[in-house]
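Memo to structure team: turn this sequence into structure tokens by end of day. - J.P.
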Amino acid sequence: MSAWPVSTLSNDDDVFMTPTTSNRYNGLLSPTATPARIPSQPENPSQPVGNHTSNSILATEVLKILAPIPLNSSVQSQLVELLNRHDLRTQGIAKGRDITRLAIQSKEREIAELQARITGLEAERQTSRTVIAYLKQDIGISAASPKKG
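Reply from structure team:
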């Protein structure tokens, strides 16, 4: 058995190679570009949770307030970690609230459209009943009248 010569295959021909241009698919990040999920309880408390390089606004404001007080670097990092985690949670709640509002607005629009459709169908039904009543009345009149011819 002979192996495929590597020199004859280009990167475009290699079906087992992930294309480098497809880091984003339909607006979603690829797994290599997506940050890891932050666990609720870190396995090693001395290491910071996640790969946060920047502090949240909340953590920055608290550190400004505590600037005159000398803090141990481990205490400061734990405080920043806690504040960042709570800031992320708050952001998640706000995003969830916004998504829920959009979903409710969509459902309300759908309900309004369906109610308008029901109103139209009820009006059409009433019109049909009126037409049928007139036709029955017309048939009754013509059946009671003497036949010509």
